[in-house]
Design a protein that fits this description.
The structure holds two protein chains of two kinds.
Chain A lengths: L1 E10 L4 H11 L4 E8 L5 E10 L1 H12 L4 E6 L5 E12 L6 H9 L3 E5 L3 E8 L1 H11 L3 E7 L3 E4 L2
Antiparallel strand pairs in A: 1-3, 1-4, 2-3, 5-7, 5-8, 5-9, 6-7
Chain B lengths: L5 H4 L10 H7 L1 E2 H11 L4 E4 L6 H7 L5 E3 L4 H15 L3 E5 L3 H16 L3 E7 L15 H5 L5 E4 L6 H13 L5 E7 H5 L1 E2 L22 H13 L3 E5 L1 H5 L3 H11 L3 E3 L14 E4 L6 H9 L2 E5 L5 H4 L10 E5 L14 E3 L3 H8 L9 H11 L16 H11 L5 E4 L3 H9 L8 E2 L10 H11 L5 E6 L10 H6 L5 E6 L4 H10 L33 H7 L3 E5 L2 H12 L5 E6 L26
Parallel strand pairs in B: 2-3, 2-4, 4-5, 5-7, 6-7, 9-10, 9-12, 10-11, 12-13, 13-14, 15-16, 15-17, 17-18, 18-20, 19-20
Antiparallel strand pairs in B: 1-8
Classes of the chains: A alpha+beta, B alpha/beta.
């Protein structure tokens, strides 16, 4: 099972998000990450869907999405050269360790400290899904109080 | 596609929005827009059931130039619209109220969705300010119907309404057709707009491009494969009928000696009387069709979708063959079986491009083999010695007495399969049946819809005693509208298809499939001092209560007699055939087995 990232251009109108998500889950496929945002055309939104599955399953998901009336295009960027990014906000307790070791890990990943509190730090990190995963692994020994993680966004590189 | 606002269209720059007075004087109400939109998009018959959330639309229907039909249950109404659409290819139209009206429509929508039937269903919704408050008769109709419609709309502004109605017809009838639902809140029906009526001819939807031209290189590959093939089979589905491709398919088959099998939905797409016809393929398909698929070197799927009831075990399906698949629905290609040559396009245009590229090949050996298989008949049954009427014989008699001219509408189960096996279909749209969803209760209302669409046709509705009771209330519509539908009930006092599976695969344990007191499992027996009536219900009395000429028959002579009488009579009839309770539909490919692995009747 490989993780695929699908860029789906949809009409920006009410109900479209529910329709797309419903069609995927209704067929028993599981969405891992989801991001929706505007594009240069105000009437079109871009959905980035992270989904794992066997190749034939993904082909079927793409075909099912493409035939929806509100869908302009479905692009499986996974097989192409592409850049994908996720963002994560982490709040780490510094009560036990002090700030220095936490900041050291953050520096290694090019992460930014956005909030400094007496007993905790709030850190922003942006990277590929794998980098975000590694970053969170390295933070595990610390006392992580909260995580907010975005879905993947991706762009094919031609 | 962006609509002009009312002020852009009518107002001057000084009047940003028209006053209510102006709107009422020059505009139309949302309810009026619905009725106008239906009519201008070709709706001639509307099936509908009133309710609080659609009262405004019904008020506008009061004097509209439109035939209106009142079913007695919303499900029946949707099946009627569906039968109407199947009989003609036109868009079937229905109108239901909010909440229970809409939820009752769900089975009908799913039935049409699975078989690609064009329908537009309008549902009322509670007023916009009440949506989400658990208001009286509120349901999340667009949410509930999302998976059973090709598309649905919740109309949020009366100015959108004319366009949305036209878009609904456009989406329903183009590409692979399907049902479209338009949910209209009550306050939108009551508001006024200056927007003019819109016709589906003027509609474009940016993200929806339904007309697919065949890619020339794929058509060339298909032609090359056909020209190299010695044992080709055309596997034809309902898409051939939808796309009006039957005569082109016939020229392809007959000019180039390509034997044809059809799916259940494809019955009638190719004349079954032709020496190249191998009848139906699949679970209850013919020996000829199932063997030919397994021995073919090329299977050309034309408007079919490799349903599991057709393929049997897919790993053993047509192992020796290249698979070519022509389908307008890209998601159908490669879904169930691997495809070697895919043509994602309109079937008719594909065949038009394909025919000039096909060459004559000597296939006399293959055709001779097919002729040999054809001797084994489309389906089989053993004559009985106990004198009980056999349902298969009833269908044969129907074919004989109607001289093959009947249009058959079936319910679901054994009755449906026997109707498919023992009547020879020669014309498109002469077999109407719930193929994909397998909806019991389809047979009665769909036949009524078909008869409304084709008043002069001999419409015969074939039902079992189970499904007949699932929409029996619609008989009244046939009487009211003087529709000469011939309703046949094959009464074997069992839910026969499930009973057949219980006999074959569950050790004969007839759980919940016996409709008489005898032979029921102990926990289903109902202890009662009085003796149960001989017929429960007494279908003849039911028919008579509705004012339908009704007869009960149990011998072939009686069957032929009553068919001859009924078919010549311009009134509806109910003919109850008391048939042997233990007949099976054979041949049968057991679920999960290979196509060539058929259960046949024991030899005499």
């Amino acid at each position: 099972m490989q993780r695929h990232i699908l860029n789906v251009l949809v009409e920006n109108s009410p109900g479209v998000l529910a329709r797309i998500v419903g069609h995927i889950s209704g067929r028993g496929y599981n969405i891992e990450t989801l991001n929706v945002g505007p594009t240069t055309d105000a009437s079109i939104s871009k959905m980035t869907i992270g989904i794992s599955g066997e190749p034939e399953v993904i082909v079927q998901v793409v075909a099912q999405l493409a035939k929806q009336i509100n869908v302009f295009s479905v692009d499986d960027v996974t097989a192409k050269p592409h850049i994908d990014r996720e963002a994560v906000l982490v709040k780490v307790s510094t009560r036990a360790t002090g700030r220095a070791p936490v900041i050291e890990v953050a520096m290694l990943f090019g992460a930014k400290v956005l909030g400094v509190h007496p007993d905790s730090l709030t850190i922003q990190m942006v990277g590929s899904q794998m980098q975000v995963g590694q970053f969170l692994t390295l933070l595990q020994p610390f006392d992580v109080l909260d995580i907010s993680r975005s879905g993947s966004i991706a762009m094919a590189q031609s | 596609m962006t609509q002009m606002t009312t002020s852009q269209r009518y107002g001057s720059s000084s009047a940003a929005t028209p006053t209510q007075e102006m709107l009422r004087k020059h505009g139309r109400s949302g309810a009026q827009c619905v009725v106008d939109g239906l009519i201008s998009n070709g709706c001639e018959v509307l099936f509908g059931y009133p309710g609080g959330a659609v009262i405004d639309i019904f008020d506008k229907l009061y004097d509209a130039p439109l035939k209106f039909v009142l079913p007695r249950h919303e499900q029946g109404g949707i099946h009627m619209a569906d039968g109407y659409a199947r009989a003609t290819g036109k868009v079937g139209c229905a109108l239901v109220t909010s909440g229970p009206g809409a939820t009752n429509a769900v089975t009908g929508l799913a039935t049409a969705m699975m078989d690609g039937i064009p329908m537009v269903v309008i549902s009322g919704q509670v007023a916009m300010n009440l949506i989400g408050t658990d208001a009286f008769q509120e349901a999340d109709t667009t949410g509930i119907t999302r998976g059973v419609t090709k598309h649905n709309f919740l109309v949020r502004s009366v100015d959108d309404l004319p366009r949305v109605i036209a878009e609904a017809f456009f989406v329903a009838s183009t590409g692979k057709p399907g049902p479209v639902l338009v949910d209209i809140p009550k306050n939108i029906q009551q508001q006024y707009t200056l927007q003019p009526d819109v016709s589906m001819q003027d509609v474009t939807i940016r993200a929806y491009q339904p007309t697919l031209l065949p890619p020339p290189e794929q058509v060339a590959r298909l032609a090359e494969a056909i020209n190299k093939s010695h044992r080709p089979v055309l596997y034809v589905g309902g898409g051939a009928i939808v796309s009006n491709s039957c005569s082109l398919l016939r020229s392809l088959a007959e000019t180039y000696d390509i034997p044809v099998c059809t799916t259940l939905m494809g019955l009638g797409a190719f004349p079954e009387t032709s020496p190249l016809s191998m009848w139906m393929v699949g679970m209850h398909g013919s020996i000829a069709a199932n063997y030919a698929i397994q021995q073919a070197d090329l299977v050309i799927s034309a408007g079919a979708r490799f349903d599991d009831r057709v393929t049997g075990r897919t790993s053993d399906f047509a192992c020796a063959a290249q698979i070519a698949h022509i389908d307008v629905d890209a998601s159908a290609i490669g879904k169930n079986v691997d495809t070697d040559i895919a043509v994602c396009a309109d079937l008719r245009q594909t065949l038009e491009a394909l025919l000039p590229l096909v060459r004559k090949v000597d296939r006399s050996e293959w055709v001779a083999q097919v002729a040999k298989w054809r001797e084994l008949k489309p389906a089989v049954y053993l004559p009985r010695k106990d004198g009980k009427l056999q349902p298969q014989i009833v269908i044969e008699a129907l074919d004989r007495v109607s001289e093959g001219k009947a249009t058959i509408v079936t319910d679901v189960g054994q009755n449906q399969m026997w109707a498919a096996q023992f009547f020879r279909y020669t014309r498109p749209r002469s077999f109407l049946s719930s193929g994909g969803l397998g909806t019991m209760g389809f047979g009665v209302p769909a036949a009524i819809g078909a008869q409304l669409a084709r008043p002069d046709a001999l419409i015969v509705s074939i039902n079992g005693d189970g499904g007949f009771q699932m929409n029996i209330q619609e008989l009244v519509v046939a009487v009211e509208h003087k529709l000469p539908v011939k309703f046949i009930v094959l009464n074997n006092s069992h839910l026969g298809m499930v009973r057949q599976w219980q006999d074959l695969f569950y050790g004969g344990r007839h759980s919940a499939t016996v409709l008489t007191q005898d032979n029921r499992p102990a926990n289903e027996k109902i202890v009662c001092e009085e003796e149960e009536p001989a017929y429960l219900p007494d279908f003849v009395k039911v028919g008579e209560a509705y004012g339908i000429r009704s007869k009960r028959v149990s011998t072939l002579e009686e069957v032929e007699q009553v068919f001859a009488e009924a078919f010549a009579d311009p009134h509806p009839w109910l003919i109850e055939c008391i048939v042997a309770e233990d007949e099976k539909v054979l041949p049968m490919v057991p679920p999960g087995a290979a196509l060539s692995d058929m259960i046949l009747p024991p030899r005499k």
